[in-house]
Amino acid sequence: MEQKKFKFINRIFSVIVLLTASLTYLLTIEPTVSFWDCGEFIASSYKLEVGHAPGNPVFQLIARVFTMFASPEHAAMAVNVMSALCSAFTIFFLYLTIVHLGRRIIEKNGNGGTLSMGEALALIGSGIVGSLAYCWSDTFWFSAVEAEVYAMSSLFTAAVFWMILKWEEQADSEYADRWIVAIAFLMGLSIGVHLLNLLVIPAIAFVYYYKKASRVTTWGCIGVLAASAGILALILWGIIPYLPKIAAVFDLLFVNVFHLPFNSGAAFFVIVLLVLCFLAVYLSYRKGSRVWNIISLSFTMIVIGYSAFAMVVIRSSNNTPTNEGQPDNPFALVKYLGREQYGSAPLVYGQTYASVYTDYKVKDYYTRMDSAYYKAPAPPEVIYPSESKMLFPRMHSKDPSHIRFYESYTRGQGKTVPGSDYKMPTFGDNLRFFFDYQFNYMYMRYFMWNFAGRQNDLHGQVPGDPLRGNWECGIGFIDRARLGDQSVGPDYIVDNKGKNHYYMLPLLLGIIGLLYQLGKDKRNWWITFLLFFLTGIAIILYLNQTPYQVRERDYAYAGSFYMFSIWIGLAVLAVYDWLRKPASRIISEQSTAIVVLAFLF
Please, what is the end-to-end C-alpha distance for the chain in angstroms? Predict the structure, then answer.
Protein backbone atom coordinates (compact mmCIF):
# COMPACT_ATOMS: atom_id res chain seq x y z
CA MET A 1 0.00 0.00 0.00
CA GLU A 2 1.36 3.42 -0.93
CA GLN A 3 2.18 5.81 1.87
CA LYS A 4 -0.33 8.43 0.72
CA LYS A 5 -3.16 5.89 0.60
CA PHE A 6 -2.22 4.51 4.03
CA LYS A 7 -2.24 8.02 5.54
CA PHE A 8 -5.74 8.62 4.19
CA ILE A 9 -7.10 5.34 5.58
CA ASN A 10 -5.26 5.88 8.85
CA ARG A 11 -6.87 9.28 9.29
CA ILE A 12 -10.31 7.78 8.72
CA PHE A 13 -9.77 5.20 11.45
CA SER A 14 -8.30 7.82 13.80
CA VAL A 15 -11.54 9.80 13.45
CA ILE A 16 -13.57 6.63 14.06
CA VAL A 17 -11.59 6.03 17.27
CA LEU A 18 -12.15 9.67 18.27
CA LEU A 19 -15.91 9.37 17.70
CA THR A 20 -16.05 6.06 19.59
CA ALA A 21 -14.28 7.56 22.60
CA SER A 22 -16.40 10.71 22.45
CA LEU A 23 -19.65 8.73 22.44
CA THR A 24 -18.38 6.50 25.24
CA TYR A 25 -17.59 9.41 27.53
CA LEU A 26 -20.45 11.75 26.57
CA LEU A 27 -23.00 8.99 27.17
CA THR A 28 -21.53 8.17 30.59
CA ILE A 29 -20.56 11.57 32.00
CA GLU A 30 -21.55 12.53 35.51
CA PRO A 31 -24.84 14.46 35.18
CA THR A 32 -23.94 16.85 38.01
CA VAL A 33 -21.16 17.09 40.60
CA SER A 34 -19.10 14.13 41.72
CA PHE A 35 -16.99 13.80 44.86
CA TRP A 36 -13.82 15.52 46.03
CA ASP A 37 -12.37 18.45 44.07
CA CYS A 38 -14.90 18.40 41.23
CA GLY A 39 -17.35 20.75 42.95
CA GLU A 40 -14.62 23.29 43.61
CA PHE A 41 -13.32 23.08 40.04
CA ILE A 42 -16.82 23.59 38.62
CA ALA A 43 -17.69 26.50 40.90
CA SER A 44 -14.33 28.24 40.50
CA SER A 45 -14.45 27.80 36.71
CA TYR A 46 -18.02 29.05 36.39
CA LYS A 47 -17.18 32.38 38.04
CA LEU A 48 -13.39 32.33 37.53
CA GLU A 49 -12.68 32.19 41.25
CA VAL A 50 -9.46 31.19 43.01
CA GLY A 51 -9.40 27.53 44.02
CA HIS A 52 -6.86 25.58 46.03
CA ALA A 53 -3.13 25.87 45.44
CA PRO A 54 -1.27 25.73 43.14
CA GLY A 55 -4.15 26.76 40.89
CA ASN A 56 -5.25 25.70 37.42
CA PRO A 57 -6.03 28.86 35.43
CA VAL A 58 -5.85 27.23 31.98
CA PHE A 59 -8.34 24.56 33.06
CA GLN A 60 -10.62 27.24 34.49
CA LEU A 61 -10.48 29.46 31.41
CA ILE A 62 -11.36 26.64 29.03
CA ALA A 63 -14.03 25.30 31.39
CA ARG A 64 -15.49 28.81 31.62
CA VAL A 65 -15.96 28.81 27.84
CA PHE A 66 -17.96 25.59 28.10
CA THR A 67 -20.15 26.95 30.92
CA MET A 68 -20.96 30.05 28.88
CA PHE A 69 -23.15 27.86 26.66
CA ALA A 70 -25.00 26.29 29.59
CA SER A 71 -27.58 27.52 32.06
CA PRO A 72 -26.46 27.70 35.72
CA GLU A 73 -28.13 24.41 36.61
CA HIS A 74 -26.18 22.69 33.82
CA ALA A 75 -22.79 24.27 34.53
CA ALA A 76 -21.52 21.09 36.16
CA MET A 77 -22.48 18.97 33.15
CA ALA A 78 -20.82 21.50 30.82
CA VAL A 79 -17.48 21.11 32.61
CA ASN A 80 -17.94 17.33 32.60
CA VAL A 81 -18.49 17.50 28.83
CA MET A 82 -15.19 19.37 28.52
CA SER A 83 -13.39 16.58 30.41
CA ALA A 84 -15.08 13.96 28.21
CA LEU A 85 -13.93 15.68 25.02
CA CYS A 86 -10.39 16.17 26.35
CA SER A 87 -10.28 12.47 27.17
CA ALA A 88 -11.61 11.50 23.73
CA PHE A 89 -8.86 13.50 22.04
CA THR A 90 -6.35 11.79 24.35
CA ILE A 91 -7.50 8.47 22.87
CA PHE A 92 -7.20 9.98 19.40
CA PHE A 93 -3.55 10.91 19.98
CA LEU A 94 -2.89 7.49 21.53
CA TYR A 95 -4.11 5.83 18.34
CA LEU A 96 -1.79 7.99 16.22
CA THR A 97 1.13 7.34 18.57
CA ILE A 98 0.72 3.55 18.44
CA VAL A 99 0.53 3.58 14.65
CA HIS A 100 3.67 5.74 14.46
CA LEU A 101 5.67 3.45 16.76
CA GLY A 102 4.40 0.37 14.93
CA ARG A 103 5.46 1.92 11.63
CA ARG A 104 8.95 2.45 13.03
CA ILE A 105 9.18 -1.27 13.88
CA ILE A 106 8.19 -2.24 10.34
CA GLU A 107 10.70 0.22 8.87
CA LYS A 108 13.51 -1.19 11.00
CA ASN A 109 12.74 -4.61 9.55
CA GLY A 110 13.74 -3.34 6.11
CA ASN A 111 10.44 -2.08 4.71
CA GLY A 112 10.73 1.12 2.70
CA GLY A 113 7.99 3.64 1.96
CA THR A 114 5.33 1.07 1.09
CA LEU A 115 3.38 -1.34 3.26
CA SER A 116 1.81 -4.63 2.37
CA MET A 117 -1.93 -4.85 2.86
CA GLY A 118 -1.39 -7.15 5.83
CA GLU A 119 1.05 -4.75 7.48
CA ALA A 120 -1.30 -1.83 6.94
CA LEU A 121 -4.20 -3.73 8.52
CA ALA A 122 -2.02 -4.86 11.44
CA LEU A 123 -0.83 -1.29 12.04
CA ILE A 124 -4.34 0.13 12.06
CA GLY A 125 -5.47 -2.78 14.21
CA SER A 126 -2.68 -2.04 16.67
CA GLY A 127 -3.86 1.53 17.01
CA ILE A 128 -7.49 0.52 17.46
CA VAL A 129 -6.85 -2.20 20.05
CA GLY A 130 -4.35 -0.21 22.11
CA SER A 131 -6.29 3.06 22.11
CA LEU A 132 -9.66 1.48 22.89
CA ALA A 133 -8.11 -0.70 25.61
CA TYR A 134 -7.09 2.53 27.32
CA CYS A 135 -10.38 4.22 26.40
CA TRP A 136 -12.33 1.59 28.31
CA SER A 137 -9.80 1.06 31.10
CA ASP A 138 -10.98 1.47 34.68
CA THR A 139 -8.88 4.44 35.77
CA PHE A 140 -9.06 6.57 32.64
CA TRP A 141 -12.77 6.09 32.05
CA PHE A 142 -13.47 7.10 35.66
CA SER A 143 -11.48 10.34 35.37
CA ALA A 144 -12.73 11.05 31.85
CA VAL A 145 -16.32 11.75 32.86
CA GLU A 146 -15.90 14.16 35.77
CA ALA A 147 -14.69 17.73 36.26
CA GLU A 148 -11.11 16.98 37.29
CA VAL A 149 -7.85 18.37 35.89
CA TYR A 150 -6.47 14.94 35.01
CA ALA A 151 -8.47 14.57 31.79
CA MET A 152 -7.06 17.80 30.38
CA SER A 153 -3.61 16.99 31.76
CA SER A 154 -3.72 13.63 29.94
CA LEU A 155 -4.61 15.43 26.72
CA PHE A 156 -1.57 17.70 27.06
CA THR A 157 0.68 14.69 27.70
CA ALA A 158 -0.72 12.73 24.76
CA ALA A 159 -0.52 15.72 22.40
CA VAL A 160 3.04 16.63 23.36
CA PHE A 161 4.30 13.06 22.97
CA TRP A 162 2.62 12.75 19.57
CA MET A 163 4.04 16.12 18.47
CA ILE A 164 7.65 15.13 19.18
CA LEU A 165 7.04 11.99 17.10
CA LYS A 166 5.74 14.22 14.29
CA TRP A 167 8.91 16.30 14.62
CA GLU A 168 10.95 13.11 14.30
CA GLU A 169 9.03 12.25 11.14
CA GLN A 170 9.70 15.67 9.61
CA ALA A 171 13.07 16.44 11.23
CA ASP A 172 14.88 16.79 7.91
CA SER A 173 12.41 19.31 6.50
CA GLU A 174 12.90 23.08 6.70
CA TYR A 175 10.13 23.90 9.16
CA ALA A 176 10.26 20.82 11.39
CA ASP A 177 11.36 22.81 14.45
CA ARG A 178 7.95 24.47 14.63
CA TRP A 179 6.83 21.30 16.41
CA ILE A 180 9.39 21.93 19.18
CA VAL A 181 8.22 25.53 19.58
CA ALA A 182 4.59 24.34 19.75
CA ILE A 183 5.59 21.75 22.36
CA ALA A 184 7.21 24.48 24.47
CA PHE A 185 4.00 26.52 24.32
CA LEU A 186 1.89 23.54 25.41
CA MET A 187 4.38 22.88 28.21
CA GLY A 188 3.88 26.42 29.47
CA LEU A 189 0.11 26.12 29.23
CA SER A 190 0.11 22.72 30.95
CA ILE A 191 1.59 24.29 34.10
CA GLY A 192 -1.80 25.97 34.43
CA VAL A 193 -3.50 22.56 34.43
CA HIS A 194 -1.16 20.11 36.19
CA LEU A 195 2.59 19.54 36.39
CA LEU A 196 2.41 15.91 35.23
CA ASN A 197 2.91 16.94 31.60
CA LEU A 198 6.46 18.09 32.36
CA LEU A 199 7.48 14.45 32.81
CA VAL A 200 7.46 14.07 29.02
CA ILE A 201 10.62 16.23 28.78
CA PRO A 202 13.14 13.35 29.13
CA ALA A 203 11.35 11.39 26.40
CA ILE A 204 11.42 14.45 24.13
CA ALA A 205 15.16 14.83 24.73
CA PHE A 206 15.84 11.22 23.74
CA VAL A 207 13.73 11.46 20.57
CA TYR A 208 15.76 14.54 19.60
CA TYR A 209 19.08 12.86 20.43
CA TYR A 210 18.31 9.64 18.54
CA LYS A 211 17.30 11.62 15.45
CA LYS A 212 20.12 14.16 15.42
CA ALA A 213 23.12 12.23 16.79
CA SER A 214 25.53 10.88 14.18
CA ARG A 215 26.39 8.04 16.55
CA VAL A 216 24.44 6.96 19.64
CA THR A 217 26.67 6.04 22.59
CA THR A 218 26.15 5.03 26.19
CA TRP A 219 27.78 8.22 27.46
CA GLY A 220 25.68 10.21 25.03
CA CYS A 221 22.51 8.67 26.48
CA ILE A 222 23.70 9.43 30.02
CA GLY A 223 24.37 13.00 28.96
CA VAL A 224 20.89 13.32 27.42
CA LEU A 225 19.32 11.92 30.60
CA ALA A 226 21.26 14.45 32.69
CA ALA A 227 20.42 17.32 30.32
CA SER A 228 16.70 16.45 30.33
CA ALA A 229 16.74 16.26 34.13
CA GLY A 230 18.38 19.70 34.10
CA ILE A 231 15.68 21.11 31.80
CA LEU A 232 12.97 19.60 34.00
CA ALA A 233 14.63 21.07 37.11
CA LEU A 234 14.98 24.45 35.39
CA ILE A 235 11.25 24.60 34.76
CA LEU A 236 10.13 23.10 38.09
CA TRP A 237 12.55 24.90 40.40
CA GLY A 238 13.62 27.78 38.19
CA ILE A 239 10.95 29.23 35.93
CA ILE A 240 7.87 28.29 37.99
CA PRO A 241 9.01 29.64 41.39
CA TYR A 242 11.63 32.26 40.47
CA LEU A 243 9.77 34.29 37.85
CA PRO A 244 7.12 35.20 40.47
CA LYS A 245 9.89 35.77 43.05
CA ILE A 246 11.68 38.22 40.75
CA ALA A 247 8.33 39.86 40.01
CA ALA A 248 7.82 40.18 43.79
CA VAL A 249 11.17 42.00 44.18
CA PHE A 250 10.14 44.49 41.48
CA ASP A 251 6.76 44.93 43.13
CA LEU A 252 8.40 45.59 46.51
CA LEU A 253 10.45 48.36 44.89
CA PHE A 254 7.51 49.90 43.05
CA VAL A 255 5.12 49.77 46.04
CA ASN A 256 7.35 50.54 49.04
CA VAL A 257 9.81 52.94 47.36
CA PHE A 258 7.96 54.48 44.41
CA HIS A 259 4.57 54.33 46.21
CA LEU A 260 2.82 52.90 43.18
CA PRO A 261 -0.16 50.48 43.29
CA PHE A 262 0.24 46.80 44.13
CA ASN A 263 1.23 44.57 41.18
CA SER A 264 2.60 47.54 39.18
CA GLY A 265 6.16 46.28 39.67
CA ALA A 266 5.14 42.75 38.71
CA ALA A 267 3.46 44.04 35.53
CA PHE A 268 6.61 46.04 34.69
CA PHE A 269 8.76 42.92 35.16
CA VAL A 270 6.53 40.82 32.88
CA ILE A 271 6.70 43.47 30.15
CA VAL A 272 10.49 43.72 30.44
CA LEU A 273 10.82 39.92 30.41
CA LEU A 274 8.74 39.57 27.26
CA VAL A 275 10.66 42.40 25.55
CA LEU A 276 13.94 40.63 26.38
CA CYS A 277 12.54 37.32 25.10
CA PHE A 278 11.44 38.83 21.79
CA LEU A 279 14.78 40.64 21.50
CA ALA A 280 16.63 37.33 22.00
CA VAL A 281 14.46 35.71 19.31
CA TYR A 282 15.12 38.58 16.89
CA LEU A 283 18.90 38.73 17.46
CA SER A 284 19.36 34.96 17.20
CA TYR A 285 17.39 35.01 13.95
CA ARG A 286 19.43 37.89 12.53
CA LYS A 287 22.69 36.14 13.38
CA GLY A 288 21.50 32.90 11.79
CA SER A 289 21.94 30.87 14.97
CA ARG A 290 19.29 28.18 14.53
CA VAL A 291 19.92 26.47 17.88
CA TRP A 292 19.78 29.68 19.94
CA ASN A 293 16.76 30.83 17.99
CA ILE A 294 14.88 27.64 18.87
CA ILE A 295 16.00 27.91 22.51
CA SER A 296 14.89 31.54 22.80
CA LEU A 297 11.61 30.82 21.00
CA SER A 298 10.92 27.84 23.25
CA PHE A 299 11.66 29.82 26.43
CA THR A 300 9.41 32.63 25.19
CA MET A 301 6.58 30.20 24.49
CA ILE A 302 6.91 28.64 27.95
CA VAL A 303 6.74 32.09 29.54
CA ILE A 304 3.69 33.06 27.45
CA GLY A 305 1.91 29.84 28.40
CA TYR A 306 2.87 30.23 32.06
CA SER A 307 1.56 33.82 32.04
CA ALA A 308 -1.94 32.36 32.35
CA PHE A 309 -1.34 32.54 36.12
CA ALA A 310 -1.88 36.28 35.83
CA MET A 311 -5.55 35.34 35.95
CA VAL A 312 -5.09 34.06 39.52
CA VAL A 313 -3.74 37.42 40.70
CA ILE A 314 -6.32 39.40 38.73
CA ARG A 315 -9.29 37.44 40.04
CA SER A 316 -7.95 37.31 43.60
CA SER A 317 -7.56 41.10 43.55
CA ASN A 318 -11.29 41.27 42.82
CA ASN A 319 -12.04 39.39 46.08
CA THR A 320 -13.99 36.54 44.53
CA PRO A 321 -16.17 34.52 46.96
CA THR A 322 -13.75 31.60 46.73
CA ASN A 323 -10.28 33.07 47.18
CA GLU A 324 -8.06 30.39 48.70
CA GLY A 325 -4.72 31.75 49.90
CA GLN A 326 -5.70 35.19 48.52
CA PRO A 327 -2.81 35.35 46.00
CA ASP A 328 -3.56 38.96 45.01
CA ASN A 329 0.11 40.00 44.89
CA PRO A 330 3.36 38.33 43.72
CA PHE A 331 4.53 37.50 47.26
CA ALA A 332 1.28 35.67 48.00
CA LEU A 333 1.45 34.04 44.55
CA VAL A 334 4.89 32.59 45.38
CA LYS A 335 3.45 30.92 48.48
CA TYR A 336 0.40 29.81 46.51
CA LEU A 337 2.46 28.19 43.74
CA GLY A 338 4.76 26.58 46.31
CA ARG A 339 1.78 24.90 48.08
CA GLU A 340 3.35 25.88 51.38
CA GLN A 341 0.18 25.13 53.36
CA TYR A 342 0.51 21.42 52.50
CA GLY A 343 3.95 20.94 54.00
CA SER A 344 6.46 18.58 52.43
CA ALA A 345 7.56 14.97 52.68
CA PRO A 346 11.22 13.87 52.78
CA LEU A 347 12.38 12.10 49.64
CA VAL A 348 16.01 10.97 49.58
CA TYR A 349 17.20 11.71 53.12
CA GLY A 350 15.20 12.95 56.09
CA GLN A 351 13.24 12.35 59.26
CA THR A 352 10.98 9.47 60.25
CA TYR A 353 7.93 9.28 62.47
CA ALA A 354 10.24 8.58 65.45
CA SER A 355 12.52 11.59 64.85
CA VAL A 356 12.66 14.43 67.36
CA TYR A 357 13.62 17.93 66.26
CA THR A 358 16.30 19.75 68.23
CA ASP A 359 16.03 23.25 66.81
CA TYR A 360 14.00 25.41 64.48
CA LYS A 361 14.43 28.46 62.29
CA VAL A 362 12.04 31.22 61.36
CA LYS A 363 12.20 33.04 58.05
CA ASP A 364 10.59 36.39 57.39
CA TYR A 365 8.34 36.95 54.42
CA TYR A 366 6.61 39.99 52.97
CA THR A 367 2.87 40.35 53.28
CA ARG A 368 0.48 42.97 51.96
CA MET A 369 -0.88 45.40 54.55
CA ASP A 370 -2.73 48.65 53.76
CA SER A 371 -0.72 50.36 51.01
CA ALA A 372 2.70 48.70 51.45
CA TYR A 373 4.51 45.40 52.06
CA TYR A 374 5.66 44.55 55.58
CA LYS A 375 7.81 41.75 56.96
CA ALA A 376 6.14 39.06 59.06
CA PRO A 377 7.48 35.83 60.61
CA ALA A 378 6.74 32.67 58.68
CA PRO A 379 5.77 29.43 60.45
CA PRO A 380 8.87 27.87 62.06
CA GLU A 381 10.80 25.24 60.14
CA VAL A 382 11.99 22.44 62.43
CA ILE A 383 15.50 21.00 62.23
CA TYR A 384 16.21 17.32 62.86
CA PRO A 385 19.65 16.03 63.89
CA SER A 386 21.43 13.60 61.56
CA GLU A 387 20.99 10.69 64.00
CA SER A 388 17.20 11.10 63.61
CA LYS A 389 17.34 10.89 59.84
CA MET A 390 17.66 8.01 57.43
CA LEU A 391 18.23 7.32 53.76
CA PHE A 392 15.10 6.96 51.64
CA PRO A 393 12.66 7.73 54.48
CA ARG A 394 9.21 6.33 53.73
CA MET A 395 7.70 6.26 57.23
CA HIS A 396 7.66 9.97 58.00
CA SER A 397 4.18 11.01 59.14
CA LYS A 398 3.65 11.80 62.85
CA ASP A 399 -0.10 11.22 62.73
CA PRO A 400 -0.89 8.69 65.52
CA SER A 401 -3.01 6.50 63.23
CA HIS A 402 -0.20 6.45 60.66
CA ILE A 403 2.33 5.53 63.33
CA ARG A 404 0.22 2.54 64.38
CA PHE A 405 0.19 1.46 60.74
CA TYR A 406 3.97 1.91 60.44
CA GLU A 407 4.53 -0.20 63.53
CA SER A 408 2.72 -3.11 61.93
CA TYR A 409 5.86 -3.26 59.74
CA THR A 410 8.45 -2.52 62.43
CA ARG A 411 6.84 -4.64 65.19
CA GLY A 412 8.30 -2.23 67.76
CA GLN A 413 11.88 -3.06 66.80
CA GLY A 414 14.55 -0.52 65.96
CA LYS A 415 16.95 2.03 67.40
CA THR A 416 15.91 4.04 70.45
CA VAL A 417 15.66 7.77 69.79
CA PRO A 418 16.25 10.07 72.83
CA GLY A 419 13.12 12.06 73.63
CA SER A 420 10.87 9.99 71.36
CA ASP A 421 8.10 7.58 72.33
CA TYR A 422 8.91 5.44 69.30
CA LYS A 423 11.87 3.53 67.96
CA MET A 424 13.59 4.43 64.71
CA PRO A 425 12.56 2.02 61.91
CA THR A 426 15.30 -0.05 60.36
CA PHE A 427 16.11 0.38 56.68
CA GLY A 428 14.70 -3.11 56.05
CA ASP A 429 11.38 -2.17 57.68
CA ASN A 430 11.39 1.01 55.66
CA LEU A 431 11.81 -0.92 52.40
CA ARG A 432 9.16 -3.44 53.43
CA PHE A 433 6.64 -0.61 53.88
CA PHE A 434 7.66 0.90 50.54
CA PHE A 435 7.30 -2.29 48.52
CA ASP A 436 4.20 -3.62 50.30
CA TYR A 437 2.19 -0.42 50.70
CA GLN A 438 3.49 2.36 48.46
CA PHE A 439 4.50 0.25 45.47
CA ASN A 440 2.29 -2.85 45.63
CA TYR A 441 -0.90 -1.52 47.22
CA MET A 442 -0.82 2.06 45.95
CA TYR A 443 0.41 1.33 42.41
CA MET A 444 0.38 -2.33 41.37
CA ARG A 445 -3.15 -2.80 42.72
CA TYR A 446 -4.32 0.02 40.46
CA PHE A 447 -2.26 -1.29 37.57
CA MET A 448 -3.96 -4.67 37.89
CA TRP A 449 -7.38 -3.02 38.11
CA ASN A 450 -6.86 -1.78 34.58
CA PHE A 451 -5.19 -4.78 32.97
CA ALA A 452 -6.27 -7.84 35.00
CA GLY A 453 -9.59 -7.00 36.66
CA ARG A 454 -11.19 -5.33 39.67
CA GLN A 455 -12.96 -6.87 42.62
CA ASN A 456 -15.31 -3.99 43.52
CA ASP A 457 -15.57 -0.23 43.85
CA LEU A 458 -15.23 -0.08 47.63
CA HIS A 459 -12.53 2.21 48.95
CA GLY A 460 -9.48 0.25 50.08
CA GLN A 461 -7.34 1.93 52.72
CA VAL A 462 -4.87 -0.72 53.80
CA PRO A 463 -3.42 -3.97 52.43
CA GLY A 464 -4.80 -7.20 53.79
CA ASP A 465 -8.49 -6.33 53.67
CA PRO A 466 -9.87 -9.13 51.44
CA LEU A 467 -13.10 -7.30 50.59
CA ARG A 468 -12.13 -3.77 49.60
CA GLY A 469 -10.58 -2.47 46.42
CA ASN A 470 -8.44 -5.47 45.42
CA TRP A 471 -7.63 -6.59 41.91
CA GLU A 472 -9.38 -9.73 40.73
CA CYS A 473 -8.83 -11.27 37.30
CA GLY A 474 -11.63 -13.84 37.14
CA ILE A 475 -9.30 -16.83 36.88
CA GLY A 476 -10.52 -19.04 39.70
CA PHE A 477 -7.38 -20.55 41.19
CA ILE A 478 -5.49 -17.20 41.09
CA ASP A 479 -8.27 -15.27 42.81
CA ARG A 480 -8.95 -17.98 45.39
CA ALA A 481 -5.26 -18.13 46.26
CA ARG A 482 -5.17 -14.37 46.77
CA LEU A 483 -8.58 -13.55 48.22
CA GLY A 484 -10.31 -16.75 49.23
CA ASP A 485 -13.72 -17.78 47.89
CA GLN A 486 -15.32 -14.61 46.48
CA SER A 487 -18.51 -16.38 45.39
CA VAL A 488 -19.94 -16.16 48.91
CA GLY A 489 -20.56 -13.03 50.93
CA PRO A 490 -22.94 -10.07 51.06
CA ASP A 491 -24.57 -8.92 47.83
CA TYR A 492 -22.71 -5.61 47.81
CA ILE A 493 -19.48 -7.63 47.45
CA VAL A 494 -20.53 -10.56 45.24
CA ASP A 495 -22.74 -8.52 42.87
CA ASN A 496 -20.82 -5.26 42.97
CA LYS A 497 -21.19 -3.31 39.73
CA GLY A 498 -17.54 -2.32 39.90
CA LYS A 499 -16.48 -5.94 39.43
CA ASN A 500 -14.57 -6.32 36.17
CA HIS A 501 -12.85 -9.52 35.04
CA TYR A 502 -10.34 -9.23 32.19
CA TYR A 503 -8.72 -12.63 32.79
CA MET A 504 -5.31 -10.92 32.51
CA LEU A 505 -5.65 -10.67 28.73
CA PRO A 506 -4.75 -6.94 28.52
CA LEU A 507 -1.82 -7.62 30.85
CA LEU A 508 -0.51 -10.46 28.70
CA LEU A 509 -0.93 -8.41 25.52
CA GLY A 510 0.98 -5.54 27.09
CA ILE A 511 3.84 -7.83 28.06
CA ILE A 512 3.91 -9.26 24.53
CA GLY A 513 4.01 -5.76 23.04
CA LEU A 514 6.73 -4.68 25.48
CA LEU A 515 8.96 -7.62 24.57
CA TYR A 516 8.23 -7.25 20.85
CA GLN A 517 9.18 -3.55 20.79
CA LEU A 518 12.27 -4.29 22.89
CA GLY A 519 13.41 -6.89 20.39
CA LYS A 520 12.59 -4.90 17.25
CA ASP A 521 13.12 -1.23 18.17
CA LYS A 522 15.20 -0.71 21.31
CA ARG A 523 15.39 3.07 21.02
CA ASN A 524 11.65 3.67 20.91
CA TRP A 525 11.19 0.97 23.54
CA TRP A 526 13.48 2.95 25.85
CA ILE A 527 11.50 6.16 25.20
CA THR A 528 8.22 4.37 25.92
CA PHE A 529 9.61 2.66 29.01
CA LEU A 530 11.10 5.92 30.30
CA LEU A 531 7.69 7.59 30.15
CA PHE A 532 6.07 4.51 31.70
CA PHE A 533 8.54 4.72 34.59
CA LEU A 534 8.36 8.50 35.07
CA THR A 535 4.55 8.61 35.07
CA GLY A 536 4.25 5.62 37.39
CA ILE A 537 7.02 4.44 39.68
CA ALA A 538 8.78 7.83 39.77
CA ILE A 539 5.54 9.43 41.00
CA ILE A 540 5.34 6.83 43.78
CA LEU A 541 8.86 7.76 44.87
CA TYR A 542 8.05 11.48 44.75
CA LEU A 543 4.68 11.42 46.53
CA ASN A 544 5.93 9.28 49.44
CA GLN A 545 2.33 8.55 50.40
CA THR A 546 1.15 8.04 53.95
CA PRO A 547 -1.32 5.32 55.02
CA TYR A 548 -5.10 5.70 55.06
CA GLN A 549 -5.49 7.84 51.95
CA VAL A 550 -8.92 9.48 51.88
CA ARG A 551 -9.63 8.20 48.38
CA GLU A 552 -8.16 5.94 45.74
CA ARG A 553 -5.21 7.62 44.04
CA ASP A 554 -5.09 5.71 40.76
CA TYR A 555 -5.77 8.86 38.71
CA ALA A 556 -2.21 10.03 39.45
CA TYR A 557 -0.79 7.09 37.48
CA ALA A 558 -2.99 7.37 34.38
CA GLY A 559 0.04 8.39 32.30
CA SER A 560 1.75 5.12 33.19
CA PHE A 561 -1.30 3.14 32.11
CA TYR A 562 -1.36 5.19 28.88
CA MET A 563 2.15 4.05 28.03
CA PHE A 564 1.33 0.41 28.84
CA SER A 565 -1.60 0.64 26.42
CA ILE A 566 0.90 1.45 23.67
CA TRP A 567 2.40 -1.99 24.27
CA ILE A 568 -1.08 -3.55 24.22
CA GLY A 569 -1.53 -2.10 20.75
CA LEU A 570 1.87 -3.24 19.54
CA ALA A 571 0.97 -6.78 20.62
CA VAL A 572 -1.38 -6.94 17.61
CA LEU A 573 1.56 -6.23 15.32
CA ALA A 574 3.63 -8.80 17.22
CA VAL A 575 1.07 -11.59 16.86
CA TYR A 576 0.61 -10.76 13.17
CA ASP A 577 4.39 -10.76 12.62
CA TRP A 578 4.73 -14.15 14.32
CA LEU A 579 1.85 -15.79 12.42
CA ARG A 580 2.07 -14.39 8.93
CA LYS A 581 4.82 -16.71 7.66
CA PRO A 582 3.39 -20.02 8.95
CA ALA A 583 -0.14 -18.90 8.05
CA SER A 584 0.89 -17.87 4.51
CA ARG A 585 0.68 -21.53 3.48
CA ILE A 586 -3.07 -21.43 4.14
CA ILE A 587 -4.29 -17.81 3.84
CA SER A 588 -3.01 -14.46 2.58
CA GLU A 589 -1.22 -11.87 4.72
CA GLN A 590 -4.24 -9.57 4.86
CA SER A 591 -6.45 -12.45 5.93
CA THR A 592 -3.97 -13.23 8.69
CA ALA A 593 -4.11 -9.61 9.86
CA ILE A 594 -7.92 -9.65 9.86
CA VAL A 595 -8.03 -12.90 11.85
CA VAL A 596 -5.53 -11.58 14.42
CA LEU A 597 -7.40 -8.29 14.77
CA ALA A 598 -10.78 -10.00 15.08
CA PHE A 599 -9.45 -12.38 17.74
CA LEU A 600 -7.66 -9.76 19.84
CA PHE A 601 -10.36 -7.12 19.54
Answer: 23
